[in-house]
Design a protein that fits this description.
The protein has 276 residues and is of the alpha+beta class. It contains 3 helices and 16 strands. 33% of the residues lie in helices and 29% in strands.
Amino acid sequence: MVGRRGQADSSTEEVATSKRRLWVVRHKIFSLAASAVLVIIIIASITSSPGTSVKTSSSATPTTASAPISPTTTPKPTAATTAVTPTTSTTSTTVAPTTTTVPARVVTGKAVTLGAGQFAGGTDVTPGLYDVTTTSGQSGNFIVEGPDTYDEILGTSASLGVPKVRARISKGDSIQISGMSNVIFTPVTAPLVTTHTPVTLYAGTWTVGQDIGAGRYVATTTAGSSGNFIIVNEFVDEILGQADGLGVPSITVNLHKGDVIDISSLSTVTMTPAGP
């Protein structure tokens, strides 16, 4: 009996020993596996950390790219200040027309008052351009023969004549005055008219480029008036106004610099600019 128990005890002990060994082996295997997993985790973390640093470095690159953002071209706005130069040129352009103002009229002739009689240009009246008038209540004949010819009833006392005549007196002209004791010769001082603008004329001689600007106009007169409207260079010879039922109410003319307009028996002729 004792021998069998001893055998049983020894076998039991062997089983226990083998179980211990198996447990140790398993524990070692588990430790190795855990170590392997830990190694893998460490390797994985090491591998991932360079990636992060790469990202950081790549994100740093945009920071360097921001250098172009502070363009040194910023001074160019300052250079754009040179755009102020156009302002200067605009000013100079504006000044040009001001400089090119209409030249002043050269006043010719000398004021004089004559009565009835015969007179000569250059002797009794200094050659020049005049507005010829008479005093209130007088009316009579005013006749000039020479390069420019005038034959007007001067004065409006009889409701037939004109209040004034624009007359160019030349040396050697024959001047005849009748029915009036005071005929006043006043040199023309009105500024030159060179632009295409409305102008009012009257009996006498008018030069385009001095008394009226070149261009296309419609000439009219007041109701109840009638007289001659002549532009030799433009082949215009009309009775303007319909006081006698013979003339025309208006005349359309093209005026060129240097043309001379002769008007007689009319106290008012309105020159209105017209389209082409």
